[in-house]
């Protein structure tokens, strides 16, 4: 039985229908082939871009459709629910927020209309480094000012979509950690033109992963970035990136809700039809209950995504809700994935059922873009007032 959507009004319903229609052209076989070949869904991203879906959060004044975060969340949820993977392009929606909120008017005019039209792709977000991990303020990549340029040296890891992006939002230190009063100071955000950087000291090395995610290592060997590509004020970049994290968490949570719905629909349908011992396996409560539990978890997560979105859209603090939504949704999609594999028995492992692919894909969300442990420590410290643990 198809899972019913929460009513969010006619506009969101239209968006859901639009995405479902678009996704019909990108069949399970399409995603399976890309997974097998570890290749990027160029045609899919192009279609989304051409239809304007990747520009929903860009204001109309800059060529976008100026829609709400709820619209962006519905788009990503529906992509996952259709069996696809929004990871190929989701970053453009939230990375762009740093430029929108903190960029100069000249930067917005230069980049946003081109991003909205699909002429420029802003898909790469260079934050994580091999030695810093989750501790972002320990990044070592350094941007040294030299007249009207910054010279960047260092390395990023897990920079997804770098090979399929014209621009990267880069986080680099501009003052050493030892020389700042607060460790969050002295970090800056830059727009890197990848096409120029590749000609001048930047190299990209793909990382093969459990699932198809186009992720990479990026090396900066004295790459020159024009000073005009600094976003906002020098040294304030950590705050700029943090301010976009809630949107990222909400959108990733929406993807997890979409994954959970896909797994639950598949599992309940199979459980109702697969006959073993002369009766449908779904007649056994041992088969029903994990699916029903995952459904309940998904519904709770979906409500939290909704609440976080409403707070975000009204400009209120939503750190607690966005973090909880991300954790509950990632847990729900993982529980649904596990139940779906178990319900399908041996067939859950067969490539042609797509379950093993989606199972591998949804596992990521326990770790990235923020791990479950770090969300729990956020709740403990910032919501419950317990001592900082790190
Ligand atoms: C496929 C993929 C795509 C990614 N894409 C991007 C991207 O585009 N851009 C980007 O910048 N990054 C990206 N990342 C990086 C991702 O955000 C990090 O992997 C994630 O933040 C965790 O960092 P880490 O891998 O260094 O783990 P670590 O920080 O080394 O942590 C390892 C484990 O220890 C736990 N841990 C660490 N510290 C604590 C603590 N104080 N308390 C409790 N537990 C703790 C963590 O929860 C985690 O489970 C991606 C990662 C993957 C796998």
From TrEMBL:
Ranges for the Acyl-CoA dehydrogenase/oxidase C-terminal domain?
A: 235-382
PROSITE patterns xref list: ACYL_COA_DH_1, ACYL_COA_DH_2
Q: Which SUPFAM superfamilies match?
A: Acyl-CoA dehydrogenase C-terminal domain-like (SSF47203), Acyl-CoA dehydrogenase NM domain-like (SSF56645)
Task: Tell me the superkingdom of the source.
Answer: Bacteria
This protein's record includes keyword Isomerase:
no
Q: Which residues cross the membrane?
A: none
Q: In this protein, which residues make up the domain named Acyl-CoA oxidase/dehydrogenase middle?
A: 124-223
Q: Which UniProt keywords apply?
A: FAD, Flavoprotein, Oxidoreductase
Q: Which residues form the Acyl-CoA dehydrogenase/oxidase N-terminal domain?
A: 10-119
Q: Which Pfam families match?
A: Acyl-CoA_dh_1 (PF00441), Acyl-CoA_dh_M (PF02770), Acyl-CoA_dh_N (PF02771)
| Obligatory cofactor(s) | FAD
Q: Which family does it belong to?
A: Belongs to the acyl-CoA dehydrogenase family.
Q: What is this protein called?
A: Alkylation response protein AidB-like acyl-CoA dehydrogenase
Q: Which organism is it from?
A: Aminobacter ciceronei
């Amino acid at each position: 039985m198809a899972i019913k959507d929460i009513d969010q009004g006619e506009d969101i319903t239209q968006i859901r229908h639009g995405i479902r229609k678009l996704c019909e052209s990108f069949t399970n076989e399409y995603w399976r082939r890309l997974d097998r070949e570890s290749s990027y869904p160029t045609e899919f991203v192009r279609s989304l871009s051409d239809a304007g879906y990747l520009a929903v959060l860009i204001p109309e004044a800059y060529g976008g459709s100026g829609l709400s975060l709820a619209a962006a969340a519905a788009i990503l949820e529906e992509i996952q629910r259709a069996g696809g993977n929004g990871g190929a392009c989701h970053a453009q929606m939230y990375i762009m927020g740093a430029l929108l909120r903190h960029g100069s008017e000249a930067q917005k005019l230069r980049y946003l209309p081109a991003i909205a039209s699909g002429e420029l792709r802003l898909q790469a977000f260079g934050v994580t480094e091999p030695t810093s991990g989750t501790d972002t303020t320990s990044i070592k990549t350094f941007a040294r000012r030299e007249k009207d340029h910054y010279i960047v040296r260092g390395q990023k890891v897990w920079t997804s979509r770098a090979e399929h992006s014209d621009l990267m939002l880069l986080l680099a230190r501009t003052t050493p950690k030892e020389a700042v009063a607060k460790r969050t100071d002295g970090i800056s955000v830059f727009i890197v033109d990848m096409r120029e950087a590749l000609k001048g000291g930047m190299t990209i090395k793909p990382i093969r992963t459990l699932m198809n995610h186009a992720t990479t290592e990026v090396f900066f060997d004295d790459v020159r970035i024009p000073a005009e590509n600094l976003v906002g004020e020098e040294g304030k970049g950590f705050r700029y990136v943090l301010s976009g994290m809630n949107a990222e968490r909400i959108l990733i949570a929406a993807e997890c809700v979409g994954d959970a719905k896909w797994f639950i629909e598949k599992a309940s349908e199979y459980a109702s039809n697969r006959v073993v011992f002369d009766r449908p396996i779904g007649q056994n409560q041992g088969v029903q209950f994990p699916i029903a539990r995952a459904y309940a978890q998904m519904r709770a997560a979906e409500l939290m995504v909704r609440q976080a979105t409403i707070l975000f859209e009204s400009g209120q603090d939503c750190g607690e809700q966005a973090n909880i939504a991300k954790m509950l949704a990632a847990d729900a999609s993982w529980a649904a994935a596990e139940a779906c594999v178990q319900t399908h028995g041996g067939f859950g492992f067969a490539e042609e059922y797509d379950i093993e692919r989606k199972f591998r894909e949804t596992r990521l969300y326990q770790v990235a873009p923020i791990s479950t442990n770090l969300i729990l420590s956020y709740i403990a410290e910032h919501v419950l007032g317990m001592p900082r643990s790190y």
